[in-house]
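Risk register update: the risk that structure generation would not scale has been downgraded. Supporting records follow, first protein first.
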Amino acid sequence: MLTPGLFQKLHLARFTENGAYLMDETGAEVLLPRRYVTDSMREGDTVEAFVCFDSEDRPVATTHRPLLTLSQVGPLDVVAVSRIGVFLDWGLPKDLLLPRANYRGELRTGDTVVVALEADRVSGRLVATTKLGAYVSNREIKVCEGDKVEILVAQRSEGGFKVIVNGVNWGMIYDNQLFSPVRIGDRMTGYVGRITELGRIDILTRKEGYDGVREASDRLLEMMEDNGGSLPVCDSSSPETIAQTTGMSKKLFKKALGGLLREGVASVDDGGIRLIKR
């Protein structure tokens, strides 16, 4: 069965002036336009192709790989705005429509928006949606506290950002856990700090505990070495200055610096920290 939005293994049935027709196991055919046909293709070959729609909304195949396939969630850039919605660059010649009914607020050209790819219930055409409840939820939590996770920054929220955790769960990074600027669509590594009884997943951008402090101490050493042996911050600096200079919270910075001071590899000097050369 030809399913728009998915890659499928199809048989090359015949060549025409417009390209080649690919056939599925039921005998249904779809055109692979000439620009995707290669000299090595032969009748009877198996071709892995993505089924979508052309500019006249006719089913068509391509061997190019889009940025999203059916039911996948990811960030796409807005390339045009119209009265019916916005158009997104998803890596294929025909841009992907995000209908106005499928998002809230205003989007402008150049914005990045996190969407899922789905088939429109009425027309069957492939469209984008920011309504991600069918694709991301916390009905089944698939992470544990302390886990290292991959996160996608999805939405700005009060006090922080909603993020997608390992592609399946919602999480939250609060502003006080952000030590460098982030944008919608950024992909990052994080750590599960807490899972509440209500199923909320709080995400940290720095590992807590001994391992996290050890990593922070190593980063401080690297930063001092890269900066000529010193940094213009110390434990009396403001949290904002420490975050801007080191990307750490003041709490983590003080713990990391304390370890270096105890080891005798760093000292505090004139409002900054300095490597002790041996």
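Supporting record for the second protein:
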Amino acid sequence: MQSIDEVHIAPLGFEYDRIVGPAEEYDVDVVYLLEHDDRLDAPDYHDDVRDRLAELGASLRSRSVDLFDIYDVLGVVTTLVAEHDEDIVRVNVSSGSKLSAVGATIACMCTDATAYYVHPEGYRYADREERQSYGYADDEVLPTYPIESPTPDQVAVMDFLAETNTDAYTVKKKDVIEFAEAEGLSFIADSDPANDKAKFALLNANVVEPLLEDGYVAVEDVGRRKQVRLTDTGEDALRAFRHQIREL
């Protein structure tokens, strides 16, 4: 029988005890440290965090991320949660930037992961070369409200739009249907539509209309054809949920 691991995900910002304390409290098995892209400018005490986690026996793993980009953090966290769908996953929202906290919290709302906030014993209010707080008083689970993420079919279509649309060519709905058939997307494959009219109806109901409602795509009338493109919001959403394509 496969064992269930205690997995923690923590942005590696300006904290030490806020990361190490919960790892020790929950006897963590795996810790993912989300490290900012510019690691060459990282404080020296980041090595102390890694050393202490290793002493606790945790399997330490790192992921490079822009801690000041909500969607980058959101995408990395949702991907890691999907990779540990059989484990207990807790996400530390207090150890990075304010923007990473937002991204991590939203990720928990889209998944089964638990977001938690660590209360330190006190604050130093020092510069970035020093730890910003000290001690581990306790932690609390944050209330979350479920957010419905795009379906794997919808994410696959968004990825197709991102890869195919160019300045010279804009994807038509017919192109999307041909892509869906070639890739065996469920909204087509599971319904076995009898004709093209039924295929377009399935595409609109299961993919285009939900993505339009969320502002992820835009549809333009060019003659008798419907052209579909990804919006800026859709591009951010694709970054956050691209991992779902693997579920197809």
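The longest strand covers residues 6-12. On this basis the risk owner (M.S.) recommends closing the item.
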